[in-house]
């Protein structure tokens, strides 16, 4: 099957507000990965969790193609992709309170202080994620940059609408549902320890 054929099946038309019920033909929980990268997480996890639906959101078209190469129409019926930038207007496309879980693995840490404003995780971004999540929905984040982990922890500490699921804000213990990706292995070979965070949407 060609990439163009896969695009027609997996890549969602975003010219109108989405109905996950129409897209997947069911009302199962929605797991949204922001920044699908090489597509490893969504290709593997969706196979092991057929009772859930997966949405991969990626800004770069080339990475959409990379992910498509790992997907099979028969094996990944619970996967769809969005070529989309997540900002404050995204609720016009993705319905508010429609996502059960948001995954953000290894966002760019922009380590230099003068570049911190470019980091994905900012308060306005968390506002958007809070809008998309169902009550009790979770955000799962991983990073191998300790400074970025501390940055993220402090962002969430300023909010009353999310609850940290790890006492210290993050942990180095690999979660049971985490699958080691190419990037995980690459960073581990260079001596970088991944840190995992999880936050739950709560009542304000």
The helix/strand class is: alpha/beta
Segments where pLDDT lies below 50 for 5+ residues?
A: none
Strand count, sense and barrel status of the largest sheet are: 7 strands, mixed
Helix content: 25-40%
Output the number of helix runs.
7
Number of domains: 1
Assess the beta-strand content as a share of residues.
15-25%
Descriptive report:
- By secondary structure, the protein is an alpha/beta fold.
- The protein is 29% helix and 22% strand.
- The chain has helices spanning 3-10, 20-24, 40-48, 61-68, 123-132, 146-157, 182-189; strands at 30-34, 53-58, 79-83, 99-105, 133-143, 162-164, 195-201.
- The protein has a single domain, classed as Rossmann fold, CATH 3.40.50.150.
- It has a 7-stranded mixed sheet with strand order 3-2-1-4-5-7-6, with helices on both faces.
- The model has no long low-confidence stretch (mean pLDDT 92).
Tags for this entry?
204 residues; alpha/beta; Rossmann fold; 7 helices
Question: How do the strands and helices of this protein lay out in sequence?
Answer:
Blueprint lengths: L2 H8 L9 H5 L5 E5 L5 H9 L4 E6 L2 H8 L10 E5 L15 E7 L17 H10 E11 L2 H12 L4 E3 L17 H8 L5 E7 L3
Parallel strand pairs: 1-2, 1-4, 2-3, 4-5
Antiparallel strand pairs: 5-7, 6-7
């Amino acid at each position: 099957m060609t990439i163009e054929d896969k695009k027609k099946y997996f890549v969602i038309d975003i010219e109108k507000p989405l109905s996950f019920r129409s897209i997947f033909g069911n009302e199962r929980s929605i797991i949204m990965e922001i920044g699908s990268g090489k597509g490893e997480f969504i290709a593997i996890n969706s196979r092991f969790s057929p009772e859930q639906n997966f949405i991969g959101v990626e800004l770069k078209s080339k990475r959409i193609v990379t992910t498509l190469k790992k997907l099979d129409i028969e094996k990944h019926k619970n996967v769809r992709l969005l070529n989309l930038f997540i900002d404050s207007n995204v609720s016009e496309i993705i319905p508010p309170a429609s996502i059960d879980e948001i995954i953000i693995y290894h966002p760019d840490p922009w380590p230099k202080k003068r570049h911190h404003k470019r980091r994905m995780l900012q308060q306005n971004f968390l506002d958007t994620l809070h809008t998309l999540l169902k009550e009790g929905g979770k955000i799962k984040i991983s990073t191998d940059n300790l400074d970025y982990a501390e940055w993220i922890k402090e962002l969430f500490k300023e909010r009353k609408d999310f609850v940290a699921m790890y006492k210290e804000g993050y942990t180095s213990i690999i979660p049971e549902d985490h699958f080691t990706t190419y990037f995980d292995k690459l960073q581990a070979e260079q001596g970088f320890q991944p840190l995992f965070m999880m936050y739950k949407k709560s009542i304000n």
